[in-house]
Amino acid sequence: MRIGVVSDTHDRGETVAEAVRLLLEQRVELVLHCGDIETADTIRLFKPVPTHFVFGNWDKDRAKLAAAIKDAGGAHHDSFGAIELAGKRIAWVHSHERHQLRQLEHSDFFDYVFYGHTHVREQHRTGKTLVANPGALFRANPKTCIVLDVATGEIKPIIVPVPARPPHPPNGTPPADHSDDAVGSVIVRSPLAITPPLEPT
Question: Which end of the chain, N or C, is less surrounded by CB atoms within 10 Å?
Fold first, then answer.
């Protein structure tokens, strides 16, 4: 069985849709979301695959998000989630409350613990537990998620390409630049927002 793990999607619809497509290409049967979803629109993009969500510090309207998760056929877990698949115990958490991650990591109970919040892909082992952050789909370079083969224990990082910017419109005026900077945050540069020099008085 293969599962996908994502985090910190922060309502970036195009990137999330591409990540879901790539995870389905990898034949995942389940997705774990480590929080910072932000809106119901993002949740709907996970409808093609059963998804379990935990909430992060940017998930403000939890009742609305929980309703959207139910409508999409998913499941939500408030602060952390835990399931058993193919005899392996798996937990996931957002980790903005650091004590929860530490407790899960050092419990010597779980085979895998996944977490988000830092927007940095990494993995390490603590005792029997493999601890991994899948990276983020916003404010990360590159944007990543991961696939876990539960049977073999292989973890495969997936790089999610950023959608290409639209071409210039026919009138030749370049569109506002909504490109990512080096850490993936969106920078808006309007080509018309140029202040002329002041005339001397």
Answer: C
